[in-house]
Amino acid sequence: MRRKSVNFNVHSQPEFYREVVKRVNSHFKNSSQSKHGNTSMVVKTIFMCALYFIPFGFIISGLVTSLAGQMALWAIMGLGMSGIGLSVMHDANHGSYSKNNKINHAVGLIINFIGGYHVNWKIQHNVLHHTYTNIQGLDDDISKNNTIRLSPHQKQLAFHKYQIFYAPFLYSILSLYWFLGKDIEQIVKYGKEKLVEDQGISIRQAALEIFIAKTSYILLFIAVPIYFSPILWWQTMLGFLLMHAICGQILALIFQCAHVIEETDFFEPSESGSMENSFAIHQMRTTSNFANDSTFFSWFIGGLNYQIEHHLFPNICHVHYKDISKIVKSTAQEFNVPYNQHRTFLDALSSHFRQLNRLGVGAV
User: Fold this and answer.
1) Which domain holds residue 96?
2) Any residues with CB less than 8 A from the CB of 186 and at least 6 apart, and which?
3) Where are the beta strands (DSSP E) in the chain?
4) Inter-CA distances, 271 with 1, 126, 274, 279, 332, Å
5) Does residue 328 form part of some domain?
6) CA-CA distance, 248 to 244, in Å (whole number)?
7) Is 4 within the bounds of a domain?
8) Are 83 and 76 in contact, with CB atoms under 8 Å apart?
9) Distance between terminal CA atoms of the chain?
10) How do residues 60-116 score in pLDDT, each as one tens digit?
């Protein structure tokens, strides 16, 4: 049974999207730049992979024998893991890393080395989140099986009033849950909704790929370190959990600060599935930028602090977001379209937790 879809209002300020697309296309034409990645993207890929795999090499080499040293290496791996997720595989699985789809596919497969499964990620992120941003029941990024209330259209439960306190813990186990159970749950769910076959793969093949990916991940990043690491097995497992806690916290907060804040809107589809806004206006109302003046921060998180530009142009590599953000912002102001942004990441983070508290106590 296919998931219910919605119809965006094509008559809602269509001139904004036409104009912003025209201006962005002109930017690339006039500058003779490709919309895909460049040399800096390749350098970043090497750096992020090195940040993940080099510490792993030291963990199993026996060269670092102290518990503190081993924990530090796992912590660095957590940074590398999040860096790969935000800055490398994200662009590749959007098809924006390279103009060569084979390269995009190959680089996108690196998600399987950090505990995920590329097909499920494409469905949840590319198909559902990017199409139905902040729409209750359709955007799986805000549907958390009632453990946390991220939308005013979600049923409020008594324990949600404490979510501002327990949310950081849930965020810290995000990537661990992704590795342990989420992919299995999703392949069953997306299979029933015919979303897997839309990716050109059968359920049987997807299940086999998940089994191979998860088994390989367990052997490589749990069994091998336990066997070769000079510290006790349970200490190695603590390091593994530390890596996931760091990665999960980073991934969760980056994406939550882009959509679940005080300024963004949340929607619930009507019975007929009709929406009040066009697709582009919907994205502008449900998305926010932050810390656009922070060069290193933007570099590390794959330009996802330019979330508005990413949602309007997901097929453009993030290395170009800063340049086109000026075009998008000025066009939005010209057409009186919202352009949500926070000056710093701390400002966005504060807004997210205020919104989380409001949602928890039923203030919205």
Assistant:
1) 35-361
2) 120, 123, 124
3) 288-290, 340-342
4) 17, 24, 8, 18, 30
5) yes
6) 6
7) no
8) no
9) 32
10) 999 999 999 999 999 999 999 999 999 999 999 999 999 999 999 999 999 999 999
- Structural domains of the chain, count: 1
Tokens of 79: 């940074």
In a domain, 335, yes or no: yes
Give the pLDDT confidence of 203-217 residue by residue, as tens digits. 999 999 999 999 999
Structure tokens at 332: 């939005």
Which pair of structure tokens corresponds to residue 310?
């990413």
C-alpha distances in angstroms, 178 versus 218, 255, 256? Answer: 13, 15, 17
DSSP character at residue 155: P
3-state helix, strand, coil in the chain (%, to 5): 65, 5, 30
Cα dihedral sign, 34-111-94-201: positive
Secondary element (H or E) of residue 289 = strand 288-290
- Can you say how many angstroms the Cα of residue 162 is from the centroid of all Cα atoms in its chain? 25
Would you say residue 223 lies in a domain? yes
Separation CA 248–CA 232 (nearest Å): 24
**Buried/exposed code over 212-248 (b: 16+ C-beta within 10 A; e: otherwise):** ebbeebeeebeeebbeebbbeeebbebbbebbbbbbb
Whose tokens are 């990024």? That residue is 141
> Across the strands, what pairs with 7?
274
What average pLDDT values come out for the chain (364 residues) when binned by 10 residues?
85 96 98 96 98 98 96 98 98 97 97 96 96 95 89 95 97 96 95 94 96 97 97 98 98 97 94 92 98 96 98 98 98 98 98 98 85
Strand, helix or coil for residue 315: coil
